[in-house]
Structure formats: C-alpha cells, structure tokens
UniProtKB/TrEMBL annotation:
Taxonomy of the source species: Bacteria, Bacillati, Actinomycetota, Actinomycetes, Pseudonocardiales
GO molecular function per UniProt: hydrolase activity, acting on carbon-nitrogen (but not peptide) bonds, in linear amides
GO biological process terms held by the UniProt record: glycoside metabolic process
UniProt entry tagged with the keyword Nucleus: no
Protein name (database record): Methyltransferase domain-containing protein
Source organism: Pseudonocardia sulfidoxydans NBRC 16205
Keywords, comma-separated and alphabetical: Zinc
Superkingdom classification of source: Bacteria
Amino acid sequence: MTARTVVSPAVWADALAAHELPAMDLPAGPLVVVVAHPDDETLGAAGYLATTHAAGTDVRLVVATDGEAAFPGLDSAGRAALARARRAELDDALRGLGLHDVDVTWLGLPDSGLQQRRDELADAVRPLLDGAATVLTPWADDPHPDHAAVGAAAAAVAPVTAACWAFPVWVCVWGTPGEVPVPWERAARHDLDADAAARKRTAIAAFTSQVGAAPDGGPPVLAPDVLAHFDSGVELFLRAPRRAGAPAARFADLYATRDGDPWDTRTSWYERRKRAVALACLPRERYRSAAEPGCGTGELTRELAHRCDAVHASDFAPAAVVAARAAVDGAGHVTVAEAALPEVAALPAGIDLAVLSEVLYYLSAADLDATLDRLADAVVPGGDVLVVHWRGWPEEAPHDARAVRARFDADDRYTPVVEHVDDGFALHVHRRR
C-alpha cells in the first residue's frame, strides 16, 4: 500500500468519547465474518469475536484473499510463500484469541484485485452466508479497495434476515473524524477489558510478516504508530443497512407463520401498550379522515375506527389485508386495500390523519423520500402524522427509528407536536404546516 500520514489515535479516542455509543450487541445466531485479508478481522474486531465465541455463538470466518500482495515487489515465488505464511499466521492468531475451532473458508481470490472480481466475489460469498444472523465485514467506505469490495459484496448478497455490520480498518489510521463521514447515528462500540486487550495484542503479533520489516528492509505494513490504533481498548462497529426496501416475499413468509400474526399483535403486551399510547398521543379527540398504510392485522385499525369518521387502511401483504378486513368486519366507514407506499392508494388526498406504525423504516431511501412527499400532498394543512417505530433495527430495514425521525425533523413541511420515547418504541406526531 502507498505510504500515508498516520493520524494520532488520540483524535479518534476523543471522537469516540464525544459520542454516547451503545454497546455492540452479541448476535442472536451464527456470525459470519467476511474479510479481504488474513488479519483484517484481528485488527478490527478481535475482541468482539472472542467475546461472541466465548458466549457460545457459532462464528465462521471467510477470507477472500491470502494477502499475498502486501509487498508488491515480490516475484511469484515470493508471493506464494507469503500466502502460505499468512494462512499460518491467521491460525496462530485465532488460537491466541481462543478461536481455534472457528471454521475458516479461504476463497483464494487475488489480493488487491477484488474490485475487478466483484461478481465472482459475491457469487462465492452468497452461499456461505446462509443461516447467518449477523454478517460482519470491513467497512465498505474503508479506503483500501479490497475492504470496500468485500464490504459491498457481502452486504449485497446477505440474507434479508441477517443484520449487516462493518468495522473500519485503515480509515481511522489515515483520516481524522473531521475528514471521514462516520455515520455515528448507526455506530456501536465494544470495550475490551485488560485480558481481552492483551489477547488482541498477542494475536496481532502473530502476523509476523506484517509487523516485521518488509522483505526489502523497508518499514512494516503494521508499524508501531499504526498498531497503536488497534490497541485503544475499543472496537468501533457501523451498521451497514440494506439499500433496497424490505422485499414483499419476506412479509409473505412472516404472515405464513404463527397463525398469521408474526408479531403477536393481538396478544403481546408490547403491541397492546403501543396501541394504547399511540391513541392517547393523538392530539385531537376525533378526525374526519385517516389513512393507515402498513396496517398489518388491523388491530390498530379497529381502534382508530372509534376516533375517525373514515379510515382508509392498507398493506402490501395480501395476508395482512385479509386479516385486517376480518378485524374491522362490520365497520362500514373503514376500508382495507392492498397498496404499498408511496402509492396514492395508501395515502389518499384530503386526510387529516396519517398513522404509520412500524412501517417507514422498511422503505428504500427513494421510497421514503417519495412517501414524505406524498404525505405532504395527502395530509391537509393542520392535519397530523403519527409515526411509531420499534427502537431496535429490523434486519430487513434500510433505516432505523432515529433515521426516520431525522427526516421529519429536517423537513419544514412538518412541525413536531408530540413526542414519546421509551425503551421499547419511539412515537412522534408531526403536524402538516
């Protein structure tokens, strides 16, 4: 790699201290780590991987290249020898972390050539992600092109049911927080205790080809000032959200389970309490005409019917439409249609209330933009928009509650009038100006 100026680790330590980041959660199922080179996972995530594995999680590692191009001046024989050495170094590093039984898949793709082999990389990675609850890669915005290629490829082919996370490697070494557009709003941290930090140092030292002098006597790839960045006691992780909206097939699969009520909307205290709080937060006792896109099983629709002269409910899942129609059977002022945001049928013109409960974060960025525009056209001035979101981040969703709220706050067509935030969900009412 081309020599660059190394940033002081203290700059990043100050940035981490300035942001109250949540702790990185442990995966709910198998964790598949996809990296470009042997040592990426150790540098960026060794502490987290060791903690996750010790907690009993099935951890699997996929390494795209052997790292044979770390020293471009080597001839073919030298590169082959380096490739063998780096595979052995990874084995030693994993043993030092207590990860000796982790399954490692080597793809054998060319080092420093992954950008040119992106389709082949994606095809190779796709089957290895089957069953993953979490996929972890180097950050797709990392300045090393191989890291960027791996991060983008894994996110593109990850199962819709998997949460995708990434860790920075070289971006924090070569850039300052002021130069790097870090998405702090979707960041998390993992803190290493003294023992974990020592194990990580030992694991990094196992990569002798990288921490020692180059074959020509030049400086090592991982010089002391570089290594200081990976010895801070904190590992930074960034959620890598889906780019596309949640696919219809995913919701069809969900509604085919658990008696057609995959979120237990009829029985769970979370759902019943959320409905009660939502109704209590409506600023007006009665509305003339309401729309409820993403109505699901219709439990909230049925209660909205008591507060509105007309309710236009809709969902893009046919099974949800059937369930919602059954829930409001006999209520002549309520209609339930099959429609998806941002369609006009989901948000008809002239409404004075729009209710969007746990739906907006499933939309693609383009559809979210279009939905905010459609809301502005459909809701009469002075009308209300009730938005409710679970405070977690659904695997299928391109956004989380914070991101959607920020979109409304930045839109001068709406003004906030009610806010409720607790451990379970966030609720906001925005009034159309």
